[in-house]
Structure formats: structure tokens, C-alpha cells
């Protein structure tokens, strides 16, 4: 434990008699002082003793350090001597090794010719047997020594190639015959070993056959037997992958060039099995069923490329990517050359059929409606001519737009884009994608949406029609929804195919032209607002009576607002809701502002047609208050402001003559033209009184 002086002194005092109150003893300072002095002396003696011991140990340590340093110096000297001896030994070993190598070279120089001579002698002996026509050597008669016989006959076969034919034709023929027999035996042995699954024997025989001309035949036999029983299921691609996986593990144990053998197996699978399978699947539908043909082509090409991706894991040589690409191309080249023509032809006929089936279900015969250019349509908008795009027709509430048709067209196009991406050559991909996009524009935008807009425009009733049904807003609503789907497909499926090509600007321009043309035609549907205002006029003309604002009994008016006001507000609210559901974005505010301004003008002009008693003026104010409440649904500041001002003007119909000037100078009426104020004051029944005229003048 660490030494603490205070605690040490406390313990010393506690042990000293008279040093504390222990046992009732009185405190004795002298005795305690004496004890402290004695203890200090003891500590000093102990300190001196310890100090002497420390000095002795230090001297001993210094002595041992000197001895150790001396010993280290002696070891260093002996190490230097040993290192010198080692260098001398190393030089001696190098000298001896040089002599041994020189001697080995000399021995080899003598032994190699001797071995060659022995080998030549043996070959001459075997050659003589062929000359004599009788093979007596055990190596030729013993079937277990087929490996040695193969080595000998292979060398004799090479020698025989150099001999003149006229003198050695017979022996050359015998050697060639034996060469062929041994080669056949080896291949048969390899085949038997493969069937028994003896990998070591297969490897041994393959190594012997490596120097024979029939080595390639051995590889062919191996490839053929590998495929026996490998393609029993319906999925030839999965079978091929499993087969290659199995062979890849085995081929390295059998052949010295496994990548070449595996590549040859894959080539055989592609050129025989897959090519026949693809041909059977495609030729069946090529001329009779374009839809099934395209589906099969896409599926087969995709599965073939997926198989190729799996095979990339194996060692097939240096450029396996190019090797596999060429194999795929050799299978599909005849089908891919005219793919896009088949695709466009199918897409065109399929889209036309979808549209025709829809119109037939509606018992509708498509009308040939001439469509002018965008500039022509803009001119008609500018002049606000209300000319229909052909004879007016009754659509019976049908918009001639179908979500089902649109989904079918977009689905067909989506599949076409996917096939185009997979089957087109990279250099042709943007061009082919643009052609598919053009088909979508033709049938979805022109033949369906544009036709519905044209028909809707032609079906817009005139503004003076009674009980007109405004179906054009339904057309707008559906066209807006459909175009969002069209735009989504443009971004999701077309853009990735053309994003890095010059076709991008061409597609964007085509899309822009379509949008602009449709917007112009939608703008032409502004005539629908005239119909709405016309319906409001009919309601007001039919429901508003002159006695509403000049009742016979001023003291017995029980209604809060007129029946005409109730029906007009109900109609307006429905139309506002319909517009909001039919459009989106800024288009909603633009159309509602136009409708609100026209609605205000109608009510303003309508109120100018009547004379107002005091109670009638109050009723007119109530009507305008209801109209203003209806105007709040527009959520357009300008429209609400117009009705606020109109409400203030209606106050002029009931205000006391003495207060007219004060009301006219109010915040809402101060900026209005005096003629407008005067026109409302003139509507009062009591306007002719001199008192009122005097106050307003």
C-alpha cells in the first residue's frame, strides 16, 4: 500500500502509552515526545543501513556491467572470425559446384548421344520387324503395353514419312496401318473409360493420343458422350447450363487443354442443339402468327444471352466474349435482320385491331374528319369563330376515349420497346425505337385521342341550345389522364433507348408538336363555356319573373332569394366541379377565370333588365350574395372581387336617398365609372322622384 505519513504517525501515537485516551489513561505529552524522538532515531539508523546496502548493490551492478561488456566484445570478435570462415567455405562450395556442373554437362554431352543411339537402335529393331512383316516384340503383342506401343508407332510413323515411297511403300503401309489400329484402340479405350467414369484412365489415354492425328476425334467422342442423356427435360437452356457446369469440373482433370475442349463443347451445343431448338420454335409461327413469333424470338434470345452470361464464368480462352457473341449471332442472324419490320407490321395491325374492336363495341363508324395544321387551328382560336370541324353530331354522351384501349396500346408498345432493346443492334436501336414511338403516336395520339377531341369539338352544342349536355369536358378529363400515361411511357421506356443519340431531339420535337396540337384543340373547346352561359341564360329567362324584384305586397315577402338564383348557383357549382375534375395545373385556373368573368357579366346584364322596389332590391342583394358565395368556389381572386363590387352596386337599390352620395364614395364603388353607378340607381322604382334625382345629381 502507498505510504501516508499522517496515518503512520496516528498509528504510532495510538500504540504509545499515554499517547491518547485509550483505556482511560490520561494524555502524557512528554512520554509521546520521547517515543517520537526514539522512533526518529530508529528510522535514521534504518535509513543509513538501507543506504549502505544500496551503495553496495550499485557497485556490484557496475562491476557486472563491465564484465558483460567485455564478454560482448569477445563474442563479436569470435563472430567475425566465424563469418570469415563462412565466406571461405562459401567460396569453396561455389568452386566445387562449378566443377560439378561442368562435369554434369560433360556427362550429359556423352549420355545424350548414347541415349539417342539406344533409342535409334530400338526403333531400328522395331522397324526391322515391320520390314520382315512379323511383329514379335512384346510391346506390340501385349495389350497392356499399349501406351509404350503407341509411343513407338508414333515415332516410326514420323520416320516413315521421310522415307522414299518407291522402296519403302510396303513398310510405310504397315506402319500406317498399325498407327491407325492403335489410334482406334486408344479412342475405344478412352470411350470405355469415360463410360466407366475412370477419370485417371481417361487422362492417361488422352495424354497418349495428344500426339496422334486422331486427338481431335477423341475430343469429339468425349463431347458426344457428355451430351448423352443431358437433354431430357423441356428446358434445353437449363440443361445446357447444367451440362457445361458438370463438364467444366471434369475437363481439367482429363485434358491438357481444357479451355479448348470446353469451348468446342459449347460451340457444339449452340450450333446443334440450340440452333435446332430455336428453328423449331420460330419457323412454326414465322409466317402465320407474328405475335407468337415475336414473343418466342424475344424469349429465346433472352434465354440464350442469359445462358451466355452463365458460360462467361468458365475459362474459354482469351476472348470468350467475342466467341460467345459470334455463336449467338450465328443462331439468330436470319431472324434479327428483319426483326424491326416484323415488329412494326405487327404493332400496326394489332393497334388498328384494338381501336376497331373498341369502335365496333360502341357501334360507331369512324368519321373522316379533316384536320388542319396547327397554325390553322390557332387562327380559328384567335378569331373566336364558332365553326364546327364538320357537321354537328350527337355523341350521346360518349367520349370515344377508353382507358382499356389506352392500356392495351401502351402495353403492346411497352413490350415492343423491350423487344427492341433486346433484339436491335446497338447502332440501330435509336432508329428502331423511334419507329415504334411513331406507331404509338399514330394510333394512340392521332387515331384515338385526336379523333375523340375532333368528335367532341364537333359535338359541342351552340350557345342557344336548350338542355345541352356538355360532354366535351369529359373528353378533356380522359384525354388529360391518357396523356399522362403516354408521357410516363415516353420517360420510362423510350428515353433510356434514345437518350444518347440524335434521335432524342427528334422524339422530343414530335412529342412537343403533339402536345401543342392537342392544346390548341382543347382551347377550341372554350366554346363549352358559351354553352354553360347559354344554359344559365335559359334558367334565368325561364325562372326569373319581373314580380320577383317588384312584389305586389312589399310586407309579405317570405323567400330569402329567388328560385332562378338557386337553380343558377346549383348549375354553376356542378360545372365548376366538373372543370376541376377534367383539368389540372394552371389550366383549371385559366378556364375558371374565363367562366367566372362571363358568369359575372351575365348576372350583371341580367340585373339591368329589372326595376326594383325597396323589398325587391333587398331580394336582389340576397341573390347577389348567393352568387358571390357560389363565386368563392372558383377560388379566383378576380372573380370574387367582381362579385363583391356587384354586391356593393346592389346596395344602391335600397339605400336611402340621403345616403346615396356617401355609399357611392365608399371603398368598393369610388373607382367605378359614374355612368355605371347611375345605371343602377335608375333601376329603382322611385328613381323618377325629384328628391332621389336631386340627391344623385
Automatic annotation (TrEMBL):
Entry keyword Coiled coil: yes
Superkingdom classification of source: Eukaryota
Transmembrane segments: none
GO CC annotations, alphabetized: exocyst
Annotated Exocyst complex component Sec10-like alpha-helical bundle domain residues: 148-696
Keyword annotations from UniProtKB, A to Z: Coiled coil, Exocytosis, Transport
Domain annotation Exocyst complex component Sec10 N-terminal: ranges: 29-137
Signal peptide range: none
Matches recorded under InterPro entries: Sec10-like, Sec10_HB, Sec10_N
Coiled coil location: 40-78
GO biological process, one term: Golgi to plasma membrane transport
Entry similarity comment: Belongs to the SEC10 family.
Protein name, entry field: Exocyst complex component 5
Species of the source: Pampusana beccarii
Name of encoding gene: Exoc5
Amino acid at each position: 500500500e502507498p505510504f501516508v505519513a499522517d496515518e503512520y504517525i496516528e498509528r504510532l501515537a495510538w500504540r504509545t502509552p499515554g499517547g491518547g485516551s485509550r483505556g482511560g489513561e490520561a494524555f502524557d505529552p512528554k512520554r509521546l515526545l520521547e517515543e517520537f524522538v526514539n522512533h526518529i532515531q530508529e528510522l535514521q539508523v534504518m535509513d543509513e543501513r538501507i543506504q549502505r546496502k544500496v551503495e553496495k548493490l550499485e557497485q556490484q551492478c557496475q562491476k557486472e556491467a563491465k564484465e558483460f561488456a567485455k564478454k560482448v566484445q569477445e563474442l563479436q570478435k569470435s563472430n567475425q572470425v566465424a563469418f570469415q570462415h563462412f565466406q571461405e567455405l562459401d567460396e569453396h562450395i561455389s568452386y566445387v559446384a562449378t566443377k560439378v556442373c561442368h562435369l554434369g554437362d560433360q556427362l550429359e554431352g556423352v549420355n545424350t548421344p548414347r541415349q539417342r543411339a539406344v533409342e535409334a537402335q530400338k526403333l531400328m529393331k522395331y522397324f526391322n520387324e515391320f520390314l520382315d512383316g512379323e511383329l514379335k516384340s512384346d510391346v506390340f503383342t501385349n495389350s497392356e503395353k499399349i501406351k509404350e506401343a503407341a509411343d513407338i508407332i508414333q515415332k516410326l510413323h514420323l520416320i516413315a514419312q521421310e522415307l522414299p515411297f518407291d522402296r519403302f511403300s510396303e513398310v510405310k503401309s504397315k506402319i500406317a496401318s498399325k498407327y491407325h489400329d492403335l489410334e482406334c484402340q486408344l479412342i475405344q479405350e478412352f470411350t470405355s473409360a469415360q463410360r466407366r467414369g475412370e477419370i485417371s484412365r481417361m487422362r492417361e489415354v488422352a495424354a497418349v493420343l495428344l500426339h496422334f492425328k486422331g486427338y481431335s476425334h477423341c475430343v469429339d467422342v468425349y463431347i458426344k458422350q457428355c451430351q448423352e442423356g443431358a437433354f431430357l427435360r423441356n428446358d434445353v437452356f437449363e440443361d445446357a447450363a447444367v451440362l457445361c457446369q458438370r463438364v467444366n469440373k471434369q475437363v481439367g482433370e482429363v485434358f491438357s487443354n481444357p479451355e479448348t475442349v470446353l469451348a468446342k463443347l459449347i460451340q457444339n451445343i449452340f450450333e446443334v442443339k440450340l440452333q435446332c431448338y430455336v428453328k423449331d420454335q420460330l419457323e412454326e409461327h414465322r409466317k402465320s402468327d407474328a405475335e407468337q413469333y415475336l414473343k418466342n424470338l424475344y424469349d429465346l434470345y433472352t434465354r440464350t444471352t442469359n445462358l451466355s452470361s452463365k458460360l462467361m464464368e468458365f475459362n474459354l480462352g482469351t476472348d470468350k466474349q467475342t466467341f460467345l457473341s459470334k455463336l449467338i449471332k450465328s443462331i439468330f442472324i436470319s431472324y434479327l435482320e428483319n426483326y424491326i419490320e416484323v415488329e412494326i407490321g405487327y404493332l400496326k395491325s394489332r393497334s388498328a385491331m384494338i381501336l376497331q374492336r373498341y369502335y365496333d363495341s360502341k357501334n360507331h363508324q369512324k368519321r373522316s374528319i379533316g384536320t388542319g395544321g396547327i397554325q390553322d387551328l390557332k387562327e380559328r382560336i384567335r378569331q373566336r369563330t364558332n365553326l364546327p370541324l364538320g357537321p354537328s353530331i350527337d355523341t350521346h354522351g360518349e367520349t370515344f376515349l377508353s382507358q382499356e384501349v389506352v392500356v392495351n396500346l401502351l402495353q403492346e408498345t411497352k413490350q415492343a420497346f423491350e423487344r427492341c432493346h433486346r433484339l436491335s443492334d446497338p447502332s440501330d436501336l435509336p432508329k428502331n425505337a423511334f419507329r415504334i414511338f411513331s406507331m404509338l403516336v399514330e394510333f394512340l395520339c392521332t387515331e384515338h385521342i385526336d379523333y375523340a377531341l375532333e368528335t367532341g369539338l364537333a359535338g359541342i352544342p351552340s350557345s342557344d341550345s336548350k338542355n345541352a349536355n356538355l360532354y366535351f369536358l369529359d373528353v378533356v378529363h380522359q384525354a388529360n389522364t391518357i396523356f399522362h400515361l403516354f408521357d410516363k411511357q415516353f420517360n420510362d421506356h423510350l428515353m433510356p433507348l434514345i437518350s444518347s443519340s440524335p434521335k432524342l431531339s427528334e422524339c422530343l420535337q414530335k412529342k412537343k408538336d403533339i402536345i401543342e396540337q392537342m392544346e390548341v384543340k382543347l382551347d377550341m373547346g372554350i366554346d363549352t363555356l358559351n354553352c354553360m352561359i347559354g344554359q344559365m341564360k335559359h334558367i334565368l329567362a325561364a325562372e326569373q319573373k319581373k314580380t320577383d324584384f317588384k312584389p305586389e305586397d312589399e310586407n309579405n315577402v317570405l323567400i330569402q332569394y329567388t328560385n332562378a338564383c338557386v337553380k343558377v348557383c346549383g348549375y354553376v357549382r356542378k360545372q365548376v366541379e366538373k372543370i376541376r375534375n377534367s383539368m389540372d395545373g394552371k389550366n383549371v385556373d385559366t378556364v375558371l377565370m374565363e367562366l367566372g368573368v362571363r358568369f359575372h357579366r351575365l348576372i350583371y346584364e341580367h340585373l339591368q333588365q329589372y326595376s326594383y322596389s325597396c323589398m325587391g332590391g333587398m331580394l336582389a342583394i340576397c341573390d347577389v350574395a348567393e352568387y358571390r358565395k357560389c363565386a368563392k368556389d372558383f377560388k379566383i381572386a378576380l372573380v370574387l372581387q367582381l362579385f363583391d363590387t356587384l354586391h356593393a352596386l346592389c346596395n344602391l337599390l335600397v339605400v336611402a336617398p340621403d345616403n346615396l352620395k356617401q355609399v357611392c364614395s365608399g371603398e368598393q364603388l369610388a373607382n367605378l365609372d359614374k355612368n355605371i353607378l347611375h345605371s343602377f340607381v335608375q333601376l329603382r322604382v322611385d328613381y323618377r322622384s325629384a328628391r332621389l334625382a336631386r340627391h344623385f345629381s
